[in-house]
Design brief:
Chain lengths: 150, 281
């Protein structure tokens, strides 16, 4: 009975998280629900990140549910590109590059908390199927991560 | 080529609604369109001045077809919203300018995939729009022709915005008259469409205000103010665009997928289909 309640709560929290994120799909490139993993080698951990944009800052939650943790910092840094001339239907041009810096704390399984820092790049930032790939560090540990916008 | 499903029922219903509403205000359809003055060749007489703004009995301008005259519609008149002022004068947030720039390269617009595109994007479609006023209901419908072939409602009954509006492509529009200008504010917009054909970005925080002024029978002046703290550092106002009246233009059935002659705009060129774009940008 207790497990059923916990499962129901987790499921409900996940559904609500997706529903909230669904209101912001194509505007600010970081906004929305992202799902993927991070780790080292074959050891991967699931990672769900929900981010919201209020016009000034990004806020959000990592891994919604019983182990949810708030985002400590989420910043997008943009390197301008060289767009096609105004008014021309051109597929030429160098697109801007969208870099992402993300920080949060997460329990490490031994009772302590790790401070994780993610550095990545958004691929296809104006499309619905955008992704973030890059590297993460937690103290001396480091590895790669990938997130896909749901 | 990937074929996306189309809600045929919804489109057919919209067309049916248009026909019913058009009939409800007593506009005579199927009358031959009057010739437009084009000023022909050398020595041709100059085109006569356009007839004055048509008005209702209460003096308010009629923005759509005039009862007793041929049904008509407005041609496309809005291009890119920043036009008329230097792009640098638009108060983009840095991310929004970067998204605008990238959309000049990656021009996969939701509208070309048959998605309804709200506010000013409605007035960029080549087949134009039809304004259907229903005074008894104190509302107006703006019908899209071509593209998603859908419609938008503007409430004119003095109501306030609801507390929680479920974000949609057309949003929730309330209008009021300021002299001869219809001022329409729209809130509750989602982020799944472009505001113009060039991809001027927005967020769901957008409050979009439009000013419609029919300065004569053939001209509808259009200006918009974009208030979106999610994408811009301050509100900004576009130049004044002009839509031209096209007598005889009537809504017709347009099933976006069947009639789409620009498949290269959808998932890459016909010979080079980009299947990684399984979501509409």
């Amino acid at each position: 009975m207790r497990m059923t309640t916990v499962r129901t709560f987790i499921l409900l929290a996940f559904v609500m998280a997706i529903a909230v994120a669904g209101a912001a799909q194509e505007g600010y490139p970081l906004a929305g629900t992202w799902y993927g993993d991070y780790g080292t080698g074959s050891q991967k951990h699931d990672l769900t990140v929900i981010m919201k944009w209020d016009g000034r800052t990004v806020t959000g939650t990592v891994n919604p549910g019983p182990n949810a943790t708030p985002i400590k910092s989420a910043v997008m840094n943009i390197t301008p590109g060289k767009p096609a001339p105004e008014g021309r239907n051109s597929t030429t041009g160098t697109p801007p590059v969208f870099k992402v810096h993300l920080e949060f704390d997460a329990p490490n399984g031994s009772g302590a908390t790790d401070h994780l820092v993610f550095e990545g790049t958004i691929q296809n930032p104006v499309a619905g199927n955008r992704r973030i790939t890059g590297t993460w560090t937690a103290g001396a540990e480091r590895g790669t991560f990938q997130l896909r916008r749901l | 080529m990937r074929i996306q499903s189309i809600n045929l029922f919804a489109k057919t219903s919209a067309l049916g609604l248009a026909i019913v509403l058009t009939g409800s205000i007593g506009v005579a359809a199927q009358a031959p369109a009057p010739a437009q003055g084009r000023g022909g060749g050398r020595g041709a007489a100059p085109a006569p001045p356009a007839p004055p703004t048509p008005r209702r009995a209460d003096g308010k301008p009629i923005l759509g077809s005039v009862p007793g005259q041929p049904v008509g519609g407005w041609g496309a008149g809005v291009t890119t919203l920043p036009r008329g002022g230097a792009l640098e004068e638009v108060p983009f947030q840095p991310w929004a300018r970067a998204v605008y720039d990238i959309r000049q390269i990656d021009q996969f617009e939701p509208h070309t995939r048959c998605k309804a595109s709200g506010v000013s994007r409605q007035f960029s479609t080549p087949y134009g729009t039809e304004f259907v006023e229903v005074p008894d209901l104190q509302r107006m419908y703006i019908m899209d022709n071509g593209g998603p072939n859908s419609y938008r409602i503007i409430y004119l009954d003095g109501r306030s915005f609801p507390q929680n509006i479920a974000p949609t492509n057309y949003g929730y529009s309330i209008g009021h008259w300021e002299g001869d200008t219809l001022v329409v504010e729209t809130r509750g917009l989602n982020e799944k469409f472009w505001m113009d054909t060039r991809g001027t970005p927005h967020t769901s925080q957008l409050k979009f205000t439009e000013r419609f002024t029919r300065s004569d029978m053939n001209t509808l002046k259009y200006q918009a103010t974009i208030d979106d703290p999610g994408a811009y550092t301050k509100p900004w106002t576009t130049t004044v665009f002009e839509l031209r009246w096209r007598p005889g233009d009537e809504l017709f059935e347009y099933i976006c997928q069947q009639s789409n002659y620009g498949p290269e705009l959808m998932v890459g060129s016909q010979e080079d289909v980009d299947n990684t774009r399984f979501f509409v940008p």
